[in-house]
Amino acid sequence: MKNPTIAEQSLDWLLASATDAMLIIDGDGAILLANPALERLFGYDPGTLQGQPVEVLIPQRYRHGHGALRADYARHPRPRAMGAGAELHGAHRDGREFPVEVSLSPLRSDGAQTMVMATIHDISARKAAERALQESEARMRAVFETAVDAIITIDERGILERLNPAAERMFGYTEAEVAGRNISMLMPSPHRKLHDGYLAHYLATGEKRIIGKGREVRGLRRDGSVFPMDLAVAEMTLNGRRMFTGLVRDITERRQAEEKTLQLLQEVSSANEELTNFAYVVSHDLKAPLRGIGSLADWLATDYADKFNDEGKEHMRLLINRVHRMGALIDGILQYSRVGRVREAAGAVDLNRLLADVVDLQAPPAGLRVTVQPGLPTVVGEPTRLQQVFQNLLSNAVKYIGRTDGEIHIGCADDGAFWRFSVADNGPGIEPRHFERIFQLFQTLAPRDRVESTGVGLALVKKIVEMYRGRVWVESAPGAGATFLFTWPKAAGRSHQAQGASTA
């Protein structure tokens, strides 16, 4: 037999060198020996636990029942884990609690006294990981249950395992009804026959056609109806099993909207074609006889001037003016119809040079002063369209200024991503109630017998500016003049609608 002193020393060495927290208690629950690892775990100084009841290491709320547990173990001592099916907690010296696992082993001394050696593990980190996992699973479960899109899970053989509520509503089956059946039951022909072959091909070769890419396919509902859907598939491995999760979105409404949009585009294309034909008819079939009427009126007014009295001469003047107005109206309609339909190559336009040409072509009457802000920017656009914008705004100001000392100023200001241009006059001004109306086609404020106007100019300006993603408006008050403003993008590019229309 070994010398008891050597055995005791060996036990001391074993406990002292162990990394696990260990202690030995006697039959009365007093601590005989606590190793350094246990003292560190519970926050005690070396040697201070010896002789204290083991209950000092247990939270206060559990201490009253611990004596009965010790007595029960003393009657049936055996190596075992403590607290099976229950959570155990240790009490740190500072009062905080932490979860532990305890293993018990009986020891016998020479006097046949039963002692118990306990090994204690702090499982705080494991409990935290378990809680984090549970929270993660709860979040995933919440996503799975509440997702708007359908989520379907299958194994590598294509066997259905999970359907979320959205998938049940989409396909008309409950999860229990489809579990264990092949995913192909949710596919119409010919996709149904091809699916198993595709899956087997992927498993054999790794060639992906849907997995990780997504595509548009068709689904089959329980009632036999077929619908278009977007499908994205992800692959994962769970416990050594290859699984596939499909995210499905019913795109029936999107398809219907696209079909409606296509139909509308076809109708717009047809309308554009009709507009083109109308413009051709106006250009050739109306202007030709109108020119004849104008020529005849001029001939009558010249050759028969001595035959007309004052009233007759006034009638002839009105006839000639209205023929000219009709010609201008036809030209305005043609210009309006071409905007967005007839495309001119866009390029850099020096507005200093363009405005000089516009003012020169306008030839403002004597006494009317037109000034242009120096140092205007160079912008990107169709030169003809920009000329039409400034020409119509300047012409509008000249027509309605109504005074011999009139002043018109063309200016520019930085407006972030846009340039803001203005054409201001000191004319009679415009009442606010007319601000929207004047930009509508064929709308004029003054009687046409007093001011020759087709009512197309401002509508044409609005259409061109909005085609380039800008906006146009007027600021005015009666008697305070009027300022017409519009914005033009600094970056090149017309609106998507305009680009599409320009190719019609």
UniProtKB/TrEMBL annotation:
Keyword Translocase among record annotations: no
GO cellular component: membrane
Biological process according to GO: osmosensory signaling via phosphorelay pathway; regulation of DNA-templated transcription
Keyword Transferase tagged: yes
Histidine kinase domain mapped to chain residues: 281-492
Domain PAC, chain residue ranges per copy: 84-135, 213-263
Record-level Gene Ontology MF annotations: ATP binding; phosphorelay response regulator activity; phosphorelay sensor kinase activity; protein kinase activator activity
Entry's transmembrane regions: none
Protein origin, superkingdom: Bacteria
E.C. code: 2.7.13.3
Catalytic activity: ATP + protein L-histidine = ADP + protein N-phospho-L-histidine
InterPro entries, sorted: BphY/WalK/GraS-like, HATPase_C_sf, HATPase_dom, His_kinase_dom, HisK_dim/P_dom, HisK_dim/P_sf, PAC, PAS
Protein known as: Sensor protein FixL
Organism this protein belongs to: Pseudoduganella namucuonensis
Lineage: Bacteria, Pseudomonadati, Pseudomonadota, Betaproteobacteria, Burkholderiales
